[in-house]
Amino acid sequence: MGKTIAEKILSKKSGQNVKANDIVIADLDFVMGQDGTSPLAIRAFDEMKASKVFDPNRVAMVIDHSSPSPLEGVSELHQQMRTFANDKNIILYDIGDGVCHQLVPEQGHVVPGDLVIGADSHTCTYGAINVFSTGVGSTDLAAGIISGKIWFKVPETFKFVLNGKLPKGVYSKDLILYLIGDVTADGATYMAAEYVGEAIKELSIDDRFTISNMAIEMGAKCGLMEADGKTIEWVKKHSDKDFETVSADTDAVYAQVKEYDVSNLEPQIAKPHTVDNVSPISEVAGLPVQQGVIGTCTNGRLEDLRIAAEILKGQKINKDSRLIVAPASRNIMLQAMREGTLEVLIEAGAAVVTPGCGPCVGTHNGVPSDGENVISTANRNFKGRMGNNKAFVYLGSPATVAASMITGKLTDPREFIK
User: Signal peptide: which range, if any (predicted)?
Assistant: First the structure.
């Protein structure tokens, strides 16, 4: 009987021949925490009476959720992380370096075939480059930091076969929102989502990260893709590590398989207050929006900023709206500056903030007012997600956000694409 990607990686990392629903203890290739979870992991580390980490070169902490610190109490937590990182000689990404899920692959810490945990639910992002990566709690993170191992229940796999090619003006964000709307927020709970097909092969690696990032929004444990030529080229550009790619066997057993043709997909919007409350833009176009956000670990990459800049070039943000742009990393911000992309966004009226998660999680850098509508490229729109439970958050692609900022209302971006 053949194996899925998830079964193969967990078999290799546990040294056992495993299948779905087996319980294993597996070796970790990389471990990561962010400033919302690392302080709790440090406390658990101390409570476990540990003194050393399993490998300082394979443990990172990232200050990105409240970066720079907006509050005295947060500053104390950041200092705990800096002290721990210094004492244990682990990797630390400090304020302004960027979002954890951009930095981990961008800085070459993970490669195809790896097994990775992070104390953040969107750690599933790295599945786009053939990595089994998943979110864990702070106590499990501490155990991983100490031992370099963690236990898993091997997930069943939900296979998404995506045929056709996305139409012009429709992006990977629209595709993943559509899939989440179709299978619902718990339609793939504790499964490995495996994305295959012509539509995936056509996407850039930046686009693929967007899809894997949001696997958790359908309940999935990870969002896996096979490694093709684009993947290998991207990984070799960012990492000097040796690796072996992992593909599913042709006779692998799947818990569920769904097939789609994406050729006629239109831009999608997730409406408040759940990510699976999805509809085509045509059903919600015209709703006034007071704020837009382009960024986050889902859509703050260079391609996302370029797409927005292409629409906003020579345009102005509507007088009744405001746009916040948060590049996903310092490197992306610098590249966007050098090529003029940020200049276009700023001239249009955007406020560019420090690379980080602030607007998405509602810690700072853009908390909306009561009753305001926000159109965001983020991955969640739960009530209160952006820091105000009386605001309404809609999710869409960078193109949809950019177009909506010109008109001041939810707008089909294809109206502005030449």
Answer: none
Pick from 119, 185, 135, 188: which is nearest to 159 by CA?
188
Q: Does residue 297 have a known ligand-binding role?
A: yes
CATH class of 5-260: alpha beta
Where the chain has pLDDT below 50, the residues are none
- To the question of whether residue 357 is assigned a binding role by annotation, the answer is yes
Report pLDDT digits (tens) over 291-336: 999 999 999 999 999 999 999 999 999 999 999 999 999 999 999 9
Helix runs in 119-188, H state only: 138-147, 172-183
Distance CA 377, CA 384 (A): 16
Spell out the domain ranges in the chain.
5-260, 268-415
6 class by beta-carbon count within 10 Å (0-12 exposed, 13-18 middle, 19+ buried): buried
Which tokens belong to 69? 């610190």
Q: How far is CA 390 from CA 45, 179, 273, 371, in A?
A: 38, 28, 11, 6
DSSP state of 377: S
pLDDT tens string 37-94: 999 999 999 999 999 999 999 999 999 998 898 999 999 999 999 999 999 999 999 9
**Protein fold of 268-415:** Aconitase; domain 3 (3.30.499)
Q: How far apart are alpha carbons 30 and 51 in whole angstroms?
A: 19
